[in-house]
Amino acid sequence: MPDASSAAPNPHLAAYTARSLKGRIFSGVQPTGNLHLGNYLGAIRNFVRLQGQYDCLFCVVDQHAITVWQDPKELTQQTREIAAAFLAAGLDARNNIIFNQSSVPGHAQLAWIFNCVARIGWMNRMTQFKEKSGKDRENASLGLLAYPSLMAADILLYKATHVPVGEDQKQHLELTRDIAMKFNNDFNAPDFFPITEPLIFGAATRVMSLRDGTKKMSKSDPSDYSRINLTDDADAITQKIRKAKTDPLPMPETEADAEKRPEADNLLGIYAAIADQEKADVVRAFAGQQFSAFKNALTDLAVARIGPVGSEMQRLVKDPGYVDSVLRDGAERANALAKPILDEVYRIVGFLRP
């Protein structure tokens, strides 16, 4: 998909515009660990760019978070932090619905129905379950295995037409489509659930570790120097970029050269993503220069573009009453959208509502 900040028409919306309708987006972020640059560039910034083009619901998916154990106090705090990050990045709480998943019971209610529609074989094929459960798969929670059913419920509870996803979630969205089609067929309800389309953004979807250019930037990496947290101040950003792993050669001369050098390629990609430039243009601008000069330029750019988001996020976290009011209002609006759809699902399935 082209950059959503572009003035070019969005090709995904033609079918809806023709009927004087907007598409509807659902997307969520788990409240686990510190939000970092990869979360911002790969997801949250794109949310901001999509608002106005679609009817949007942005969710803190706290029920997904507990598929692995979470400290309850930390989960509460991190839920507020994700909501604060949404607002700090520029999401408008009046024109979008911002809420936490557990505040809308319909997510879990629809997920149970989808557990009965989906097949065990589908779940066993999910790559992310295999990765997260590791070798001790028998000890993984049932929730981790059934995670994709809840993700499908998140999306289809609002009949979302589009979901912005990274490559690591693409398989789950394909399963959502399978569940929607099977439900529609099983209950002779053609077109009841939409076949949701992915919105996959390009250059910024994979931001790699500052300590290892072959690994994705992660909240769970034990080294804080592997990532730029959204709440890092200018000094922390500067220090982390200065210490970012590089190689002894000058900056690559071409994109092909960069791709052979993971750490250089990662830093060039980060610069391009933050600056909204093509990576090829960034490679040309810094070709043959010393890494120190490039890192200075990257530091200045990151502090200017990312620093204000982190500052506003920290300010909002110190005002939990306001953040909670946004989530409460969002949950009320989300419930109002979800209830008639869930009621119709119950009628289709044959649940008696005396």
From TrEMBL:
One of its GO terms (biological process) is tryptophanyl-tRNA aminoacylation. A motif ('HIGH' region) lies at residues 31-39. It is an enzyme of class 6 (ligase). The keyword ATP-binding applies. Its EC number is 6.1.1.2. Pfam families: tRNA-synt_1b. Coiled coil: none annotated. It catalyses: tRNA(Trp) + L-tryptophan + ATP = L-tryptophyl-tRNA(Trp) + AMP + diphosphate + H(+). NCBIfam families: trpS (TIGR00233). Catalyzes the attachment of tryptophan to tRNA(Trp). Homodimer. Belongs to the class-I aminoacyl-tRNA synthetase family. This is Tryptophan--tRNA ligase. It comes from Vineibacter terrae. The gene is trpS.
